[in-house]
Amino acid sequence: MKKILWTSDFSAQEVAGGAELVDAHLMSILTGQGHDVSFIKASQLSPEIVKRSIDCVFIVSNFVSLSTATKQLLRSATYFIVEHDHKYLRSRDPSRFINLEAPPKEIINRDFYKRATKVFCQSTKHGEVVRKNLQLDNIVAFGCTFWSDEHLQILQDNVTSQKEDTFAVLESTNWVKGQRAAENHCKKSNLKYKLISDPSYANFIKKLASQKGLVFFPQVFETFSRLAVEARVVGCELICNKNISAAGEPWFSLKGAKLLEAVKTHQATAERLLIDTLRETSETSAPTADITVIMNMYRRPENIPLQISALKQQTVQPKETWVWINAHEDNLRFDRGKLNVDKIFDNDYNWKFYGRFAAALLADTEYIAIFDDDTIPGAQWFENCLETMKDHEGILGSAGVILKDKYYVHHDRCGWPTKNEVTTEVDLVGHAWFFKREWLQYLWSEKPTTWDNGEDIQFSFLAKKLGGIKTYCPPHPSNDSSLHGSILGNELGIDSKATSNNNETSHQQFFTERDEVVQNALRNGWQTVKGIQL
Questions:
Q1: Cα–Cα distance for residue pair 453/436, rounded to 1 Å
Q2: So what's the architecture of 3-141 in CATH?
């Protein structure tokens, strides 16, 4: 069983709210199934912890305090969302909109929901509303919510109780619970009412059960409404508004002991849905393509586990995964034993950029995929590349460059930095390459201007000159990062370790070397996209 890291804004020990009680119950269910489940507050789940725990399954519940950087990094991990309180909406309330459907400008966190393996919703109606607003196909609904065995027994003990001739109104400082609206209704309807609250669940249910009914007017569309179900179980008449999503369940019309039995049955089904979904996720195998992956450990060893995790999530799996390790003091303390890959090239020399392409000559697959150490691919990157190859066979990459003159620095970018919607021809690509192994012969046909820079330029130049092979950026649509060759380029690539931005190679030297490589290619017959000539 994989280790599960459950994160939420608060635990049930801090806040005894519906979401926290649901989380506590589901964590206990998963623990009972043999999973190693740990809880961490969302505010404390840092990018560093995600990196260290990348092999875990993450379950994200309430996530208001989850940092943007952590949400971005989770996209390279396996995670599920247990949806509470409509965190895909700015207002957190779909009832403000006609047919519970918000306008596009109100939608937030859509990509975070989309990247989740599954999004678990509470009631069936809750699932329908989330699906309608986000237009995603990874939404599933429990069709119930969850009570602990202890709480179910408390409900059982109060199914039949002596009733007072008064209605209960929930006493709460949280405006969402609608105390004022419920009181106003009671006053207008001449209903005698009593405010009830109690931190003890047993005492609260006992108070609720003693009342003739419950007047409950939540001010937002509730994802389930435990209180409404509890009131009907203990025989209360329920007066409510349209914000009770549990009212849409076919069993909600029941009452008393029959309703409690239906709840138990549907809760057991919902628990099995969670358990089976987690199991199926670990057992599902994507098709394998004839691809050898080579990751390059240059100076960011901490990113390699992220890359490996992202590769495991590819909708098309590679045949083999290799790691090329250049000698550098930043890599010395990294535990090679943690790398779950097929082959490791552990060098005592820093071969910089060309070494990994030399390793590619040893591959026995049709395709090669190479990644820089700051490049995490989206889950459909290989699928995107294979589809692109059908119509635009060529060297493919995640960050394209279209030169504007003989100086490298004067160029237009393509790929993940600019989000090209369609396949675009470029002069060269970097960060992530995808190409046929047989094309490597062109890279090695001429000695490069320098071994210290420009392998990306040299490869595209010689492949086009000698083989007529063009270079392209596959589609990198702005609304679907799963197709991107790099989903964390800004987060991982812009630091002091970047070759173009570090102290070992000055910024001026780096671009001077690249200018020399470009100009050598132009002198020797490189036909660029814009037809540049010296």
A1: 22
A2: 3-Layer(aba) Sandwich (3.40)
Q: pLDDT tens digits for 512-521?
A: 999 999 999 9
- Helix, strand or coil, per DSSP, at residue 434: strand
Q: What are the extents of the domains in the chain?
A: 3-141, 152-257, 291-523
Alpha helices in 10-123 (DSSP H): 18-32, 47-52, 68-74, 110-115
At the top level of CATH, the class of 291-523 is alpha beta
d(CA 263, CA 255): 11
Q: Can you give the pTM of this predicted structure? A: 0.80
Alpha carbon distance 468, 341 (integer Å): 34
The per-residue pLDDT for 494 is: 57
Res 176 pLDDT > 80: yes
Whether residue 484 contacts residue 431, with contact meaning beta carbons closer than 8 Å, is answered with: no
* Distance separating alpha carbons of residues 371 and 452, to the nearest angstrom: 18
How far, in Å, CA of 261 to CA of 113, rounded?
Answer: 33
- The number of beta carbons lying within 10 Å of the beta carbon of residue 253 is 11
The 10 Å Cβ neighbour count of residue 187 is 10
C-alpha 339/C-alpha 304 separation (Å) is 8
Tokens at 181, concatenated: 């609206």
Cβ(419)–Cβ(478) under 8 Å? yes
